[in-house]
Specification:
Length: 213
Amino acid sequence: MICPNCQHKNSDRAKFCEECATRLVRKCSGCGESLSPSSKFCPECGSPAGAAQAPAPQPAPAQTAPGPTSRIPKHLAEKILSSRSAVEGERKFVTVLFADLKGSMEAIADRDPEDAQRILDPLVNLMMEAVHDYEGTVSHLLGDGLMAIFGAPVAHEDHAVRACYAALRIQEKAARLAGEFLRTLGTELSVRVGVNSGDVVVRSVGTDLSMDY
């Protein structure tokens, strides 16, 4: 039987797809009655079971916009998973980085929300890449920037240095978009980055790798 979900060809006796575990139910093409695996004819209308069809695939659930934890590189996610159980409730000395686009509200005030997002997303994505390059984790995403933490949950003794290098890389990456911003918004691209170190306590750890400090 062909799986309606992944189109895998299963054996006639299969009740669930051997590839994706979707439940396989034979239905009569004439009346829609469910058929047993051994049925040769439909018990409801008498149609040959050979004409039975699998149920139509169900529509996929609506996709939501990806959050910061869904974009963590694989190697960094593995490090977070390995240390997650040990950090909850722990006091740690970390460095926090905050970056955003200066004057973004004025620049996009008269634009459609989708158009504004299309303009700002490339900049925010570049900021995230710079943070991940130095194994920082993005704790909050803003419309025009982000907040990231270095030194937790992945411990680094040089977390302050890493944050500073990430800040420089954000400025470097943002410079690549300067021409596009000037053409699209008619304004200079100016990114603000602040860095500060201090103590935090990990209050909770989510199943999606997110953490609350």
